Amino acid sequence: MKFDFLINGRLSHETDKTYPVYCKADQSVITEVPDASEADIDAAVAAARAALPVWRRVKPVDRCKMVARMARLMRERVHEVTEHFGKEGGLPRNALKGGISFHSDLWLFYAGIGDKQYGSVLEHEGEYLNYFIREPLGVIACMLAWNTPLGSFSQKVPPALLGGNTVVVRVPDEAPLAALWMGTLAREAGFPDGVLNIVAGLGGESGAYLVRHPEVDGVSFTGSVVVGRKIAEACAPIFKRSVLELGGKSPFIICSDADLEKAAAHAVQAAFAYQGQGCSAVSRVLIEEAVHDEVLARMVEMVKSYRPALPDTPVTDSPQIGPMFNKRQMERTLEFVALAKREARLLAGGYRLVDPPFDKGYYLQPAICSLEDTDSELFMEEIFGPLLTVVSFKDEAHAIALANKCNFALSGSVWSKDFGKARGMAEAIRFGTVWTNNHLCFSHHSPWGGYKNTGWDREFGIDAIESFTEVKSIWLHP
Ligand code: NAD
Question: Residues 241, 261: one domain?
Fold first, then answer.
């Protein structure tokens, strides 16, 4: 299968440079993709700009039909990229299917609400009519995360399009294939040329060029705080709108009256799904003192049961772990493991797997540590790898203070059988999403995003369409 850019309705590119995409399990080259030059980005942005008036004339119901067609094509044709997707991302096979059906349903969700955006009319107060409408921002640059390329694509692009905007997608540089594949579907879905454009580029330069581009009116970015801050700074001088979904450091609070067995199992599972490389992965477990030792011992046993898996390893009874996404992620995690050895008690894992067939990928045995000093970077900084930190707390107020201590505030959970207490704590911790007696539960309707360093604005739900619009107030006087 050939992977190319989508620019102005054609699968083509200007650049003569390419770069390799690696299988994360063994570092073999899967294929090469074009590496966008400034000319490619200029062409994609120009196509999006030229398509704006065309797209504005397409009736909302017809826009929705195209978005619904994307949902169907994703479901019907997913087999074309399942293998590539698993390899470029380092996902074990069993982790793939559910995600793709959730993401295609997100297009369907937006197709269902995209033609139901209503303005408002102010009640008549004099001899005038005042009404408010929403208008598109213009050309939106969507910059996707490598850990969920199709998820990120589906969270950003349909709401941007249904807000009346045209789009240039920059796919994740080291995992570009699944997102480039969406370009072949977009052509079949019937979007007018230039409405949706897709490019890939290795390193930050093409991304920075796209963000700064004078013909780009808004940016939606998922990635690190460091790059998110650069994007906010690049947008600030001209007040270019940005949606930023950045890092996380999810707390998982286990009260002594929780279902301890269920909580322990859920914490471990939500910590090591995709090798801990998720913005909402559990990374700090807070356990009430009275049950701390018992729950921690259970968790350590579970962490030890993880076994490495290649992308085509069949599903087994033991939980599976794939390779880290790249060397940088592995080295960062190993630095935190070294810190855990100095500042905490490392209770399991935390080493690279060096025996074949796992020696060529960046496989780490999942790790868990017990910590007392909550000023430690282990408690305060995002790791984005398979290292779980556990601390104890005295009472509700202490747990809330510990959860809120950190500057990342995407998601967290509270575990207690006391409904009133769980609800009170959920409302007291300052995170974009809080679950009780669950963690990692998503809905197309429910807004997703965080406070503090996690960035601003929200994805999912109808709010995401509004993020890509301006409100205009019109006064009609006779
Ligand atoms: P990253 O920020 O280092 O890179 C993201 C992308 O930005 C890459 O494709 C890179 O080429 C590009 N880039 C680099 N410099 C740029 C610049 N100056 N301007 C524009 N683009 C530039 O992030 P990463 O390491 O690839 O991803 C991990 C991070 O993403 C973690 O912090 C994680 O928490 C976050 N994340 C957040 C969510 C969420 O929903 N909040 C979801 C997934 C991942």
Answer: no
Q: Are residues 421 and 466 in the same domain?
A: no
- Specify if 1 maps to a domain: no
Q: Are residues 288 and 416 in the same domain?
A: yes
Instruction: Give domain status of residue 432, yes or no.
Output: yes
Cα 237 to Cα 64: distance, rounded to the nearest angstrom: 35
Which pairing describes strands 129-136 and 469-476: parallel, antiparallel, or unpaired? antiparallel
279 is known as an active-site residue? yes
Question: 247: Cβ below 6 Å to ligand 1?
Answer: yes
Does 449 fall in a domain? no
Any catalytic annotation for residue 64?
no
The number of distinct structural domains making up the chain is 2
Torsion, CA 74, CA 76, CA 82, CA 83, rounded to 10: -140
Asked if 449 and 410 count as a contact pair (C-beta separation under 8 A), the reply is yes
Task: Please give the residue range of the domain that contains residue 375.
Answer: 250-444
Sheet (strand 120-121) strand order:
120-121, 129-136, 469-476
CB 222 less than 6 A from any atom of ligand 1: yes
Distance of alpha carbon 280 from alpha carbon 271, whole angstroms = 9
The answer to whether 393 and 402 are in contact (CB under 8 A) is: yes
Q: Does 227 sit in the ligand 1 pocket, CB within 6 Å?
A: yes
Rounded percentage of the chain residues whose pLDDT exceeds 70: 99
Identify the CA nearest to 7 among candidates 246, 167, 142: 167
Whether residue 384 sits in one domain with residue 236 = no
Quote the strand ranges of 387-450, DSSP E. Answer: 387-393, 408-409, 411-415, 433-436
Which own/partner pairs from 120-127 qualify as long-range (CB within 8 Å, at least 24 positions apart)?
127/477, 127/478
Q: Is the pLDDT of residue 8 over 80?
A: yes
| Model pTM score | 0.95
Residues 326 and 429 in one domain: yes
Q: Which of 245, 288, 382, 459 is catalytic?
A: 245
Query: Which of these is catalytic: 23, 235, 279, 369?
Result: 279
Contact (CB, 8 A) for 92 and 307: no
- Cβ distance 346 to 337 under 8 Å? yes
pLDDT value for 96: 61
Reference 66, options 82, 79, 54; nearest CA is: 54
Would 399 be classed as within a structural domain?
yes
Query: pLDDT tens digit string along 113-164?
Result: 999 988 899 877 778 889 999 999 999 999 999 999 999 999 999 999 999 9
Position 79 scores a pLDDT of 87
- On the question of pLDDT at 44 being above 90, the answer is yes
Q: Which residues contact 16 (CB under 8 A, 6 or more apart)?
A: none
Q: Which ranges in 243-387 belong to alpha helices (H)?
A: 260-272, 289-304, 327-343, 377-380
